[in-house]
User: What shape does this take?
Amino acid sequence: MKTHLTKEKIHRFLFGTKEKQGFLKQFVVYALLIAIGFIYLYPVINMFSTSMMNQNDLLDSSVKWIPSTFYIQNYIDAGRSMDFWRSFLKGIVIAGIPTVLSVASCMVAGYGFATFEFRGKKLMMALLLFSYILPSQVTMIPTYVLYSNLKMTGSLWAFIFPAALGNGLNAQIFVLIFYQFFRQVPRVLIEAAQIDGAGYFKSFVRIAIPSAGPAILTVFLFCFVWYWNESYLTELYVKGIASTNSFWNNLVIQLKDFNTTYSDRVSTGDAATSLSESVRMAATSLTILPLLIMYFFLQRHFVESIDRTGITGE
Amino acid sequence: MSKLKEKKTPRGKLGKLERRQERAGWAFISTWLIGTLLFTFIPMCEAFYYIWFKIKVRRGLEFTYIGTGNLTQIWLEDPDFLQGLVTYVWQTILEVPIIVVFALIIAMMLNGKIKARGFFRLIFFLPVIIVSGPVMNMLVSEGAASIPALNTQAVVNAFDTFLPTSVAESLGSLFGNMIMILWYSGVQILIFLSALQKIDPGLYEAAKIDGGSQWECFWKITLPTIKPMILINAVYTVIFLSSNEQNELIVMIKTTMFSATAERGYGYATAMAWIYAIMVTLIVLLFFLLLGSKKDVYDRMVKKRLRAEKKERRLVKKIERRSARNVKKLEKARKKRKYHTYDGSGDY
Assistant: This one.
């Protein structure tokens, strides 16, 4: 076959046929994706590059993206001011314990909704959706009063109790995810187990939980990340907004108070450099760094999770 | 209940099983139910009670009934809150369609035949992981959130000439925080993407054979199929935007709650929270009304047809009844010999 260019061929190459996409369209798609991808990454790249700059680079207008030297002192200062390692470990505890409880309780509730037929199920589902739509600000104040009456503010119990009772952060979404997932588990499996003499609880533990691996992973990851990032409620309940000197500080709250903490340290001569935007950016990157590392290790699970758990199910 | 009655099962073995299932179902959801009552339902009712009181914290809470005092105080003396509320409503109504449409476009592009799809998904989902209130505040305050080349002030001025100021300002902040808004669409992209992948490719093939272009395929196949997902995404976006710490109103509610001035406090903050919650619910309802799935065309046609058939049947019955009645009448009349019908014999 001769391969000289004809007008038709060029047209086919650019615009494609019914079977094959044309070059032009592919080009546009890639260009758009790369451009939007850059916009997405822009704040992160900007943050990292700024955090590496020293004072001279910040003032020098010829330095835009790549700092002249990799200046680590910002990170050391910021880390010291935020008490990085301790806040980091506390953050893991604050996010971890409620997450485990929340996963367990949401799984039980989701299984109950998915497997059994009972009167008032529709009403209960409506209650579930309603409690998702209701903004948490409405219930915030009475809940706070309840906790402070029970002397639970300023301690981790304020997160543990709701999580254990299936009402943690965004728990409604997790119940729905488990609901969708368990509906896809074949009924035959569970019925077979029951014929073999397993009770409802036993068939749940032995059959349903082992088959729910992907859903558990998804919910665990999301729950952990959301608890980790939640600063509003953490500050209110766990840290205790009234107490100035509290034990439970995670990185996000440290970042929130970063400006005041850092300038305190500067005035007492504790920090090497004064507060600049590169120090602040260094603090920000320290806050998200643990999550970034986790994300790069587990990203496959994150991204594929929603497909597999069927959040978009019928 | 109604299902059981319909089946009319005798209270034998099956009924027992059903009853046992029912008990198990309630047992499984009971922890969740207790939690919801304890942490959502009761606090909600309590909050409704708090609105009507002025509450002082002094070794426990002191309630003073002031009727609608809190509400009128907000209305008359708190321009910041009301202004913020108006801005919030406009912003949300403007941002939600942008986020949803943007997510749909990205999802459509990622759904095509593309190399390095995993890489792009990685990028678009990244913000979901790292976004949190303080991080966002830091990034916004350093100007990392806006596209540098975009002149926001010009946009605001341009819109200000023919739109109310609050709307123009919301539009301005929309352009100013473009990156942030795009950042919020990670989960939505994933939801759309998995919905798109579940569409039966046979549909597209059939459309292609019938000569449908891609444009037509999008409007006639893709969009109707993922319509429920659009609603889900819109609701998710509204909820996310309204409970996000970037939102000034919820920060305002928290500061009011602990404000030192005796004028405000718990009761006042609760009233604020209720007003805010009602606005959020109204916005969710608005999107439900706009996007709520009406029955699709086929269902509607079937229903219409059924209704027409029912009507026809009723008409037929009516005619039958009438003719039966007429026959009876005729019969009676004949018996009374009021008149004769011609029986073909020739004599009357």
About this structure: Residues 78-300 of chain B form a domain with the MetI-like fold fold (CATH 1.10.3720.10). Chain B touches chain A through 94 residues (CB under 8 Å).
